[in-house]
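Researcher: Sequence recovery benchmark, item below. Answer with residues only.
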């Protein structure tokens, strides 16, 4: 009798664990699909040359700011926050991404959509800053410091958390720049103005964060809690939409 109960309980545990494993695998696969699709559009072969020049420019500017203005970290972190904010807005509301997301994302996929997009922004931006830290260490070995990366992560979480909240109310798609060397200057100016208007709420948010957050030097645990809470809020509203 006891043996039979034990076998039934073991069978129940096995089935439950199997279901949980299947759910986790399905969730991971969907998040991965969103992440990979974002990568596919971002690293499109037709615009890869422009992207490479952008990456070189970003690394050069951030390295210069880090090495030449060590006493003014405020400037470096302000620029880093603008970059992360712009990257988030780009992969969320640019027409190339937004039109593709409409085909892929449903209410049930809200969690996967938000996590996948945030994972891409974090992965790309932190990769850039790791390269910046390494390139800065060529000029001064003291820049090769894990604490500096943690500080960047701290402010990244604050920016991304706030961007998730902004996206709830401000999510209209915007026109992106065309790739290539032959460009329509007038059209680029119009797109630039529209993108600046779209970025205004984010810039106001960054000013707010610079005023209230940087002076208090919060720890990474608090910023991560803030980030996950904001991301959870966006997921909730996406499911209700």
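Model:
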């Amino acid at each position: 009798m006891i043996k039979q109960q034990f076998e039934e309980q073991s069978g129940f545990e096995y089935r439950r664990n199997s279901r949980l494993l299947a759910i986790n695998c399905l969730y991971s696969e969907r998040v991965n699909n969103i992440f990979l699709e974002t990568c596919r559009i971002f690293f499109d072969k037709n615009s890869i040359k422009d992207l490479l020049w952008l990456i070189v420019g970003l690394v050069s500017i951030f390295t210069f700011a880090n090495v030449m203005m060590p006493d003014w970290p405020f400037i470096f972190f302000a620029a880093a926050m603008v970059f992360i904010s712009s990257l988030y807005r780009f992969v969320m509301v640019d027409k190339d991404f937004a039109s593709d997301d409409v085909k892929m994302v449903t209410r049930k996929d809200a969690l996967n959509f938000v996590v996948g997009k945030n994972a891409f922004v974090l992965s790309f931006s932190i990769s850039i800053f790791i390269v910046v830290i390494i390139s800065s260490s060529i000029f001064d070995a003291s820049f090769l410091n894990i604490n500096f990366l943690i500080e960047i992560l701290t402010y990244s979480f604050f920016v991304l958390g706030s961007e998730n909240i902004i996206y709830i109310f401000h999510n209209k798609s915007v026109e992106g720049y065309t790739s290539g060397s032959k460009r329509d200057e007038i059209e680029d100016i119009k797109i630039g103005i529209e993108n600046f208007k779209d970025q205004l709420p984010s810039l106001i948010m960054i000013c707010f964060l610079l005023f209230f957050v940087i002076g208090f030097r919060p720890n990474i645990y608090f910023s991560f809690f803030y980030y996950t809470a904001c991301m959870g809020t966006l997921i909730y509203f996406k499911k209700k939409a």
